[in-house]
Structure formats: structure tokens, C-alpha cells
Design brief:
Blueprint (H helix, E strand, L loop, with lengths): L1 E5 L4 H12 L3 E6 L2 H10 L6 E5 L5 H11 L6 E4 L14 H29 L3 E5 L12 H23 L5 E5 L4 E2 L2 H5 L8 E2 H13 L4 E2 L3 H10 L4 H13 L4
Parallel strand pairs: 1-2, 1-4, 2-3, 4-5, 5-6, 6-9, 7-8
Helix pairs in contact: 1-7, 3-4, 4-5
């Protein structure tokens, strides 16, 4: 079995790689930082076949190039984990940085999901795990573009799931939607978490385990499940005001 993992040089992507390697999976590790990828490779069992690919998925042509390079490989699982956030009022945040984020969080996920899905459907096997966020169910003042990007990932995954189900396909797709996770995300986004975060190891293991059980929406921790459930009954404007106050506490 072989998995391709984007954003695998740190955080949940790195821990997913370690977890799959412990199960005997071969790996294709993709990220921008080659040194980090090499460190990860050296830490994994020597009997595992590991390829590392250095790419910046904020450039759409790199996502297409990745698929073209990998389309003849026997890949059993795609994990779209690469992504980052940007904090600040929408009127003030840097447009170029936002477009870079949109290309990473949306465009690359869209391209890789589509191209690998076509391959998997033709082979009638394979699994895709898209990493989104609890942000994917909400509007996020002060992290507006990030929240919007994760909404895209959630809804795209849900739609594909239903298409696969109706076609009786053996291809499976899941979406991981955690709350705060202790990774480098907050450093990149320029925030600190306003509520307690779970560990990246716990998050990665939970995501992989539930994906293997063919869960569509994967939400770790009881507290985040409760928040997600009750948010359905709160008016949108009120929910957005509440979320603004939560996001404001992240400001350094």
C-alpha cells in the first residue's frame, strides 16, 4: 500500500506519514521544505519505500506536474493536507498572500482530488482524505479567506462522496475537520489559539483511523462535535458575531 501526502514536512502531515509508515505503508512525501522531508525520511523505518518531492503547491502548475509525475505509480491513498491561514480584517490582509493561500487550500486540493479521483475511479479502488477544518462549517471574521477556503473543501468532498455512493464505486473519500491543533499553523497565520488545541499526533491518528472506516466528515474531540451540532440551531448572523469574538482573542 502506498500513500501520497501533501504538506508532509510538519504538523499533521508529518504525523500521518509516521502513522502510516508504522502500518507498513510506502510513502510519497510532498512539501516545500526539502530538509524537513529528508529529516522525516531518515526517521522512518528503513524497510519502507519513501519518495520525497519538493514542490510549492501555491503554484497551480505544480499540482498538475505532481499528478503527471505520479499518475503511473500505484497509489492507494491521497491525503491533501497542505494548507495555511492568514489573520486580519479582509480589507487589510495582503492580496498576494491571500491568493497564495487560495491556490494552496483550494486550487491544489481541487486539481489533485480531481485528477487522482479520475485515476482511482478508472481503477475502481483508492482513497482520498482531504484535510479541512471545523472552520469549514462557518464564516470566520478575521480569518475570512481561510474559513471560506475550508468551506470549499468540505462541500466539494461531500458532493464527491455522494456521486461515488450513487455509482456504487469502491473509491472512498473523507474530510477531516478538526478544531485547533497544535501545529505550526498559528505561527504562519499570525495567531494564538483562543481555545484548547489537541495534539498533532492525536489528530493525525484519529483522521487516518476514521478514514479507514469510510467516515465522510471526521471531527475529533467530543467538544468540537457538540459545537458543530448546536451551531446548526444558531442564526447565521449571531453565529458570525460569536465567531468574530472567538477569532479576536487570537490576535497577538
Amino acid at each position: 500500500m502506498r500513500a501520497l501526502i501533501t504538506g508532509s514536512s510538519s504538523g499533521m502531515g508529518r504525523e500521518m506519514a509516521k502513522y502510516l509508515a508504522s502500518m507498513g505503508w510506502d510513502l510519497i512525501l510532498v512539501a516545500r521544505r526539502r530538509e524537513r522531508l529528508m529529516e522525516l525520511k531518515e526517521s522512518l523505518p528503513k524497510e519502507i519505500d519513501i519518495k520525497i518531492i519538493t514542490l510549492d503547491l501555491s503554484y497551480p502548475e505544480c499540482a498538475k506536474s505532481l499528478y503527471e509525475h505520479m499518475k503511473f505509480e500505484d497509489i492507494d491513498m491521497l491525503i491533501n493536507n497542505a494548507g495555511f491561514g492568514l489573520f486580519g480584517e479582509f480589507a487589510d490582509t495582503d492580496l498576494d498572500k491571500e491568493l497564495q493561500m487560495i491556490n494552496t487550500n483550494i486550487t491544489a486540493v481541487h486539481i489533485l482530488t480531481k485528477l487522482f479521483l479520475q485515476k482511482f475511479v478508472e481503477e475502481d479502488k483508492g482513497r482520498i482524505l482531504n484535510v479541512a477544518s471545523s472552520a469549514g462549517f462557518l464564516a470566520g471574521p478575521l480569518l475570512s479567506s481561510y474559513y471560506a477556503s475550508k468551506n470549499y473543501v468540505v462541500r466539494l468532498t461531500e458532493a464527491i462522496y455522494e456521486e461515488l455512493r450513487r455509482n456504487n464505486s469502491n473509491v472512498k473519500i473523507s474530510c477531516f475537520c478538526p478544531g485547533p491543533v497544535n501545529t505550526e499553523f498559528n505561527q504562519v497565520a499570525g495567531v494564538r489559539f483562543a481555545i484548547d488545541a489537541i495534539g498533532e499526533v492525536e489528530a493525525a491518528h484519529y483522521a487516518i483511523d476514521r478514514a479507514f472506516k469510510n467516515k465522510l466528515i471526521i471531527i475529533p474531540t467530543a467538544s468540537m462535535k457538540v459545537v458543530h451540532f448546536f451551531s446548526r440551531f444558531v442564526p447565521e448572523k449571531l453565529l458570525t458575531r460569536i465567531n468574530y469574538n472567538v477569532q479576536r482573542k487570537k490576535d497577538n
